[in-house]
Amino acid sequence: MPDTSIIILVLLGHMIGDFYAQTDRMAKNKRDCFKTLLFHGAVYALCMGAVLGVGIPLSRESILVAAVLGAAHFLIDLLKYLLWPAVKEEGPAFIIDQCAHILSMAAIVWLWGSQLVSRPFVSQQFPQSPVATLPLLFGFLCVLKPVGMLFERGEILEPFKQKPTDAESGGDRNAGKIIGYLERTIVFFFLLHKQFTAIAFVLTAKSIARFEMEKKKAEYYLIGTLFSVASVFVISFLLGLCG
User: Fold this and answer.
1) Beta-carbon count within 10 A of 169 CB
2) Residues 6+ apart with CB under 8 A from 51
3) What angle, rounded to 10 degrees, do the helices at 215-238 and 133-143 form?
4) Does 169 or 128 have the greater pLDDT score?
């Protein structure tokens, strides 16, 4: 059975390579442009190799795992590229794509992860931090862009969404994304230090800011807020950050 640190390092490499190192434009273009798909695959492999290289001593096994993870990711994206003309449903395609990546990483780590050992500093803590550095870093990065992309590309809130007007379609969406990032960041660190009353204050403040909205739109934002906050609780619980 592989060490927990190895599992988190692989997931961290995936998250950086597939979310933070991939722009929205790249994600859109790789559906139709094979060169963009190749470029993303190369960037992903570099990110995965860099993360594993920092967290795991260099060895034949670590190079093999990084290479196989990069190749598996590219093959899954290639399959999506080939099937996209017949699918063209962003929400289900995004969720199935991420599930396929997670299953492939689980299989690879299960086969070779037990041969890897993380560096000693990986399990250390920042001063004044109640948890180890690696789960803290992974959890923080996870509640930002990946959760935001799940809402956006996974179309979690699509059934509750009203059609936006022309005036709302641009700036309001970007502002909502930034508000979501800030909201999840604040809740994450309050939860980390068990400041549950402060979390309630954040939710109350946001509710007051949306008080004068029309009912259907207010309900949409409320559902979004609850999904957003719930995602922080779930991620923190799974990583053992709020135990």
Assistant:
1) 10
2) 9, 12, 13, 16
3) 160
4) 128
194 phi, psi to nearest 5 deg: 60, 40
Overall average pLDDT of the 123-128 stretch: 65
Taking the C-alpha atoms of residue 207 and residue 95, their distance in angstroms, rounded to an integer, is 30
pLDDT at 123 over 90: no
- Structural domain boundaries of the chain? 4-123, 136-238
- Inform me whether the pLDDT recorded for 115 exceeds 70: yes
pTM, rounded to two decimals:
0.85
Computed on alpha carbons and rounded to an integer, the radius of gyration of the chain in Å comes to: 19
- pLDDT tens-place string over residues 136-160: 899 999 999 999 888 877 667 666 6
What six digits make up the tokens of 9? 């390092």
The arithmetic mean of pLDDT across residues 195-209, rounded, is 78
Q: Which amino acid is at 4?
A: T
